[in-house]
Each structure stands twice: as C-alpha cells, then as structure tokens.
C-alpha cells in the first residue's frame, strides 16, 4: 500500500477555500443589492445554492470512488469514498438546515415536503446509513466492498426518489443558476461556489489521508511480542 | 435456471418449516396496524383515509424482521460459505432468496389487507389490482432488502443497520404503493393508478438488476 503523502497542498486549498468563502459571503451580505421581493432573506442564497451544487458534486464523487474501487480494488478509492461520503453528508445536512432557515420567512414553515428538500433529506439518511455501515464492519475488505455497493445502489435511487416525491408534491421555486439570477448576484454566488469547492476538496484530501492511516494500522501485521523479562524490567523502571 | 429453482425451493422450504416465525412477524405487523389507529383516534373517516399508509408502514416494519430472518439461518455454522461452494452462481442464490422473500411479503401484505378492511373499513372490489400493487410493492422491497440483509447479517448492530439502510432507499416504493393502494380504496377519478404502478415497476427493475449484479461481491470473502 502506498505511503500517504504529507505535502501541505490540501491545507493550502482549505485556506484558499475559506478565504474565498469569506470574500463571497462579505460581498453577498454587504455589497450585493437586496432582492426585490424577498429582501435580505434572499442573501442566504449565496451559501445555500453553492452548498447544493457542491453537495451533489461530493456525492457524485463518492459514486465515482465506489465504482472505481469495485473495478480496481485499490484502497485509495476506498479512502476517498469514506472522505467523500462524510463531506457529502455534511454538505447535504447543511443544505437542509439552510433550506429550513430560508423556508420559514419565505413559505411560513420550517419544512415543506418539496421534491428537492425531501430528496436531500432522504440522501442524508441514505448516505448517512452507509457511514453507519462502515462503522459497524470490522473487516476492511468487507467494509470497502459493502459501502461501495451501498453507495452505488443509493446513488441509482436518487432519480427515483426525486421523481416519486415530485409527483407526490411540488412547491420549490425554479432552480437557481447564473442564467436564472440577475447579474448583480453572479459574483458572490460564483466566489462562494468555488470557495466551498476548494474547502471540501482540501478537507476530503486530508480526511482520505486519515482513512489511509487507519487502514494501515488495521491491516498491519501485529508487532512481535517482547521478551517477558525485558518488558517487566522496563515497566518497573518506568521506561517506554 | 435449475440452480435458481433449487435455491428458491430451498428457501421456500425453510420458510415453511419456520412458519411459526412468519406468523410471529405477521402478528407484529397486525399489532402496528392496531397501534396506528390509536395514534389517529377513533375517527373512522380519518382512519379510512390513512388506511393505505398504515398498511404499507406495517408491511415495511414487518419486512425488516422477515428480511433479516432470511439470512439468519445462513450465518449459522457457515451455511452461506457452503452455499457458495455449490456449483451454482451467487446470482441464483440472490434471486432464489429475493423471490422467496417477495412471496413471503406478498402473503403478509394480503393478510394485512384483511385487517385494514376490519379495522378501518378500507376495502375495495378491485381485488386483482390490489393484489398487483401488493406484488409490485413486495418486489420493490425484497430486492434491495435481500441485498442489504446479506450485508447486515454479517455485521455488528444488524438490527439497527438493516432499517437504517433500507428505509431511505425504499421511499419511492412506500410513496407509490401508498398512493396506488389509496386510489384503489378511495377511488381513482383521474386514472392515476397506472403511473404509480409504473413507478413501482421501474423501481423493481432497477433494484433487481443491481442486486443480481452486486450480490456476488457482497458475499465473497
């Protein structure tokens, strides 16, 4: 298994992402004009919409990692899968929270059974369940294969969940893209989108390194036992 | 095909021999139907209106017990490894077990229908259509359920993991089956039954294909 690299590139990417997020948020909160109908409530869009894009991106990356692992059996894809699942679930959870905060003043309720909102909530539970599965399986190979399979199955289920809920109930406004919003809102939206992208990419790389280290300790052969007399002498002498 | 029939026969025979367990799971489903009516109150109109939802929730909760039970026996004395050593593909083992689970869930669903007729006065004369919806719903539940039961049976906290993995995945089945059953019970003036049945069919096709594709990787050492 390859040694995990220790170059500080991910930390730099995280710092760049955090800086971009600060600039984009300041722009969105202080510089960009208020929206005509929603007023200041709309400003949550500058984090909500980029979070939505990046959550979908992170879960799509998890799916790519799952497929790659099943084809190659390479541990690096399992480490990336674990990291991408965590990042995707956290972003989806943030998305639901931001959605609820926006929904209360706009729709009058914290939660509505809208297709996109409901699909995101289902995604949190579906991919969160896979993280739970990883916790409760001790064998690294079984853990990797099962979570990869569960990830592919859950990802394939996303369109079915979305369309079933859409037929059932629909209230959400049209999806926000640079084409559907005024040019005055473009820059903070784009800066925040790249900020969150860099942030999760850096965090994902760092988390994948941690997963690689844990895997090394799990599949490493046990250390040879020390001679009993020597160990006891060290304990008595307080030696390490 | 011979292997699939042999596996199906084995699983149906095991279910028949352990029929006391099936009766216990049915009793669990029936108890949930009774409890749902306490949650709503004695309003007969409301109970009839929500009968389809209660039926499918009862069946979904009972399904986690029956699906987990289908792999319980395979874990004893490494029976699953013995099965994998047989000259039969893992796919035959999966489909045999999934069909047996589907049959068991269909039977349980049909039995629970008789209870919602008695408890909630929620009957229909379109019995064949209702049976079709139950078969499609059971098909949708059993495909991912069998795949996940194979994983969770070999892990710690299996009682928690199976519903945790299965419930979010089968949201489309629950929605479509509840809507279709509701339309049969309360009437279908807009002719929507076919759309919901199609959704159940698409879900079943996707998940039966995925289950057959990945089962071998899930059970291999």
Quick take:
The complex is a heterodimer of chains A (240) and B (221). By secondary structure, chain A is an all-alpha fold.
In which range does the helix fraction of chain A lie? over 70%
The greatest interface between two protein chains, and residues involved on each side, is: A-B, 29 and 33 residues
Work out the strand percent of chain B.
Answer: under 5%
Number of helices of chain A: 7
Distance between the termini of chain A: 29 Å
Q: Count of DSSP E strands of chain A?
A: 0
Poorly predicted parts of chain B: none
Helix content of chain B: over 70%
Shape of chain A: globular
What radius of gyration of chain A results from the CA coordinates? 22 Å
Helix count, DSSP H or I runs of 4 or more residues of chain B: 10
Structural class of chain B: mainly alpha
Largest sheet of chain B: none
User: Compute the gyration radius of chain B: what is it?
Assistant: 18 Å
Blueprint of the fold:
The complex is a heterodimer of chains A (240) and B (221).
Chain A: H1 9-31, H2 45-72, H3 75-107, H4 115-136, H5 140-168, H6 186-219, H7 228-237
Chain B: H1 2-17, H2 19-40, H3 44-49, H4 51-75, H5 79-85, H6 90-120, H7 127-152, H8 158-169, H9 171-186, H10 193-219
How would you characterize the overall build of this protein?
The complex is a heterodimer of chains A (240) and B (221). Chain A has 240 residues and is mostly helical. Helix content of chain A is 75%, strand content 0%. The longest helix of chain A is centred in the last third of the chain and has 34 residues, at 186-219. Chain B is 85% helix and 0% strand. Chain B is built from ten helices and no strands. Chain B has helices at 2-17, 19-40, 44-49, 51-75, 79-85, 90-120, 127-152, 158-169, 171-186, 193-219. In chain B, helix 6 (90-120) packs across helix 7. The chains are: A mainly alpha (240), B mainly alpha (221).
